[in-house]
Amino acid sequence: VAVIDDDRPSESLLGPEVMERRLPPRYFGEGICAVGDRLVQLTWKEQQAIVWDKELRPLHKISFETTTGEGWGITTDSRHLIVSDGSSQLDFWDSSLVHGNDQGRPARVVKSINVRDKDSKPITMINELEWFRGSLLANVWYTKWILQIDPSTGRVLSFWDFSCLPLAPHRRRTDGSFNGIATVDERRGEVLVTGKNWGKMYHVRLHLP
């Protein structure tokens, strides 16, 4: 992995912050992804996904069940919503629910895969997800690893260790876990990575096999 020494302000990569919406106190927000002109956000233990429009107005909710009863990470391959729950299992939901308006309609699981290493041992604590070049990037909670996962089989194709990331001057070693991945440029293999409460993002280039 290469850390790109990039002096461009974050707005040049992400655009300026244009709006903010706070969740009701009863929800603990988790992973979020864009599906067309809508956003889908998981909640941690409430077993509901919230669908927002592009103005961050809530449209409806999708109820769901997972193996742990929790929602962690979410991404999309344009046909499915792909969801992690802290176990080794990833569920693929029918994404057509996003554009419906039935309040509380349950998610329909199309298929599930289990993430496994080269020895076929399950890898648990799968957290943040990102669809990237036809495969899944996934963070493993409590580590600084990002895995590249075959979405058909769950097999780990490669992985990157981000322990090399320098600590920002204002960051303490006790700060939150490494758990953020966002695509910048698929063709060049560039992503942004960050962690909970880090206050800083790293622009990196992944060397994919």
UniProtKB/TrEMBL annotation:
Pfam families: Glu_cyclase_2. One of its GO terms (molecular function) is glutaminyl-peptide cyclotransferase activity. This is Glutamine cyclotransferase. It comes from Vitrella brassicaformis.
